[in-house]
Amino acid sequence: MTDLDPRLTPARGDLAAEYLRGTIEAENYVPALSMRIAVGSAPLRAEARPDAAQLTEAIFGEPVAVYDLDEGWAWVQLESDRYVGWLPEWALGPVAGEPTHRVSALRTFIFPGASIKQPPEEALTLGSHVIVEREEGMFAVLATGGYVPRQHLAPLAADEDDYVSVAERFVGAPYLWGGKTSLGLDCSGLVQVAFDAAGLDAPRDSDMQEAGIGNPVAFDGAGDLQRGDLIFWKGHVAIARGDGTIIHANAHHMAVAIEDAAGAIARIAEAGSSITSVRRL
């Protein structure tokens, strides 16, 4: 990958980010307006319309650089993985400070007060960043005023020990192109979310992951796979579990599924796709 990958480069014919001045030609250059995702999750789309393709999802607390606002849409670059696209403007809010905690449960809720009987104001997904102001009973009170169950949060620096175990928690979640939550996610989204929970960086798309994660290892069959290995096909990625099985979000099951590695490799080969590489951290 290069720095000028269009997926990661905030540049159009009429507009580009100020930091690209001298690198890319555009009619205008604009500085970034720093904002954050203020809803549970929001679709990053290829175009400024609700029926445009979803490229990925941005989740609560994620910082974004805004370069253009147009009739309810914001053209942005996500600061986490540098992806560029259009977000609905309603998903954005001001930067309120540095996050202190992240959501460690697959999903949780923000309640308006210190009672689980109150209707929640928002649902949060794994990896969401929040600012905890204080604790009150079983709740962490956010700087924004909401209440989140304390057992669903972890300090920002408290990384998971094993990204494979994180991925396994998503078994049964439906497949969704561009998704990154337990309501739906795709193959590379599963890898990225699991890596993030373990304090590891992963680019968004499978081709980026194949180019940038770990080191290639020789592959002569499913018996060579070790726990945590990433298996790549053109446009697809799976994670080895170290027991002869793999886990992946896939369109065959339309879900995150665990499969026998040899069987899955054969099935995918029959569909016309061979393994392009195996990479190991």
UniProtKB/TrEMBL annotation:
**The keyword Nucleotidyltransferase is annotated on this UniProt entry:** no
Ranges where the NlpC/P60 domain occurs: 157-281
Superkingdom of source: Bacteria
Q: Which UniProt keywords apply?
A: Hydrolase, Protease, Thiol protease
Could you tell me which Gene3D superfamilies the record lists for this protein?
endopeptidase domain like (from Nostoc punctiforme), SH3 Domains
By its UniProt entry, which SUPFAM superfamilies does this protein fall under?
Answer: Cysteine proteinases
Family label: Belongs to the peptidase C40 family.
The protein, known as: NlpC/P60 family protein
Recorded source organism is Flaviflagellibacter deserti
